[in-house]
Amino acid sequence: MVHLLNLLAAIALLVWGTQIVRTGILRVFGESLRHMLAVGMSSRPKALLAGLGVTSLIQSSTATCLIVTSFLGRALVPLAAALAVILGADIGTSLMAVVFSFDLSWLSPLLIFGGVVAYISREKTTTGRLGRVAIGLGLILLSLQFIVAATRPLVESPAVRAMLGALPNEVLLDMLVGALLTVLAYSSLAIVLLTATLAVSGIVPTTVALGLVIGANLGSGLLAVILTARAPVAERRLPIGNLLFKLVGAIAAIPLLPYAHVWLQELTGEVHQQVVAFHLAFNLALSVLFIGLTGPAARLLQRLLPEPKMSANQRPAHLDPSALETPSLAISCAAREALHQADVVETMLRGIVPVLRSNDLVLAEQLRQMDDKVDELYTSIKLYLTQISREALSERESRRWTDVVSFTINMEQIGDIIERVLQDIEDKKIRLNRRMSDAGMAEVCHLHERLVANLRLAMSVFLDGHVRDARKLLEEKARFRDLQLEYASSHIARLRENTQQSIETSSLHLDLISDLKRINSHICSIAYPILESAGALTPTRIRPSVLAPLDSDLQRGAE
């Protein structure tokens, strides 16, 4: 029992090591890897090499598949090129298995020690994050040593030998077990390395190991299909096409396994290298076989999985669940949905003046109901962002994550204020059949016009993050405050002149310009994170020359 627990712990350490490496590489090079994939889509050979290079770094063809899938969902790449990328991604995982098949036991303590020192001493820097990757690589190598040590006693167990005795002649069962283990472990690389290590220990015959390797390849394709099961049709085509490639390759490989076993024995006498060499040969064969068929395969998938017809009131959903495995992509998805939320808020904001001018109760009701949509979007974006692993975020991505959250909160609060403004217009003007003075209406319209312009500018600042536009937006906050005070004074002056319309709508007018100022404050607050990151904000708005006399007065008072 102890030996079995040791083996399970070693397997868990292997899976955890691959997870650390994958998240660490994505955290440091996430944007660069996306750019590499996007640039490599110009031709099928380049696409294959791009998939190979990226997957060699992140050690997960599934993660690469999810990145490319998100590109397909935004119509950034053709499906044929994406299929070529995945063929290269499978070669990348195979090459990493070959690298780990060498005796690198001396490297494990060096990587762990160096990685821990780098991570602890410079945790928030790129060096610290690369130290985290080194720790993951060291754990992978260490876990392989643990697996070898834990399997030795199991090999000598008669019960284990009897249980595995039926497997050599059941290739389909071997493939099924390999696929199931890969789905559970979330890593075909980990299962291939585990299989090779078990084969070296003798607990698994080489013929069974080859079947498990084919199953691991099928499992990686199946895992991507499962993860994108609820994604749009355009994003589901790639994982399904990849799985079909693997299925055809697996069916073709079954009758060739005995010959492959003999060929591998002639190639090398070490069982461990036989297993990883077969894994590499299998994926190289798939690439050679299907690289020229990615175009017809793409057309077939598009016919089998056509785009559903969208109704007039439908829109693309930006909160893509499959992008959650790639934090930088997921944050981009949330940002796009936040801009849609801002569009709904802008529609509500633009409707205030028409309701005020025409006393349109139907329009007011429609606009107030749109606040429910704003709240719904806020909840969806918030829950989506909470599913993103904060550990996998770089410093820049963490700031962007915070910016998106802050933006959606401000939009939700603006929607609530607009809803109350519309309700006040109904209660204090429309239902009482009152009319604002021409001067008062002109003041409200002027503030409203500036408010809409500020909202558009805020959306631009949120999207692009330009410091110049952020500074301009913050300057608008002071101008708007001055205008609100000026128009409040003008209204008081009209009350002194006993202007009847101003008297009747005084409460509405003062509340309205005050609420517009509150909306503007929420809009302008979007500029603060941008300016703070650029170091363009002062600690306080009070002049130092004013603070000095105040401090002296307080000191004398204390004495």
Low-confidence stretches: 310-314
Main β sheet profile? none
- Return the string of H and E elements: HHHHHHHHHHHHHHHHHHHHHHHH
Radius of gyration: 31 Å
Number of helices: 24
**Estimated helix fraction:** over 70%
Give the distance, in angstroms, between the N- and C-terminal Cα atoms.
Answer: 76 Å
Structural class call reads mainly alpha
Architecture overview:
It is a single chain. It is built from 24 helices and no strands. It has 559 residues and is mainly α. Helix 3 runs antiparallel to helix 4 (79-101) and helix 8 crosses helix 10 (206-227). The chain is elongated. The model is unreliable at 310-314 (pLDDT under 50).
Features:
81% helix; single chain; 559 residues; mainly alpha
Question: Gist?
Answer:
The chain has about 550 residues and is mainly α.
Topology:
Blueprint: H1 2-39, H2 44-58, H3 61-73, H4 79-101, H5 107-121, H6 126-155, H7 158-164, H8 171-185, H9 188-201, H10 206-227, H11 233-253, H12 257-267, H13 271-290, H14 294-304, H15 327-350, H16 352-358, H17 361-386, H18 395-430, H19 438-464, H20 467-496, H21 500-504, H22 506-524, H23 527-533, H24 544-558
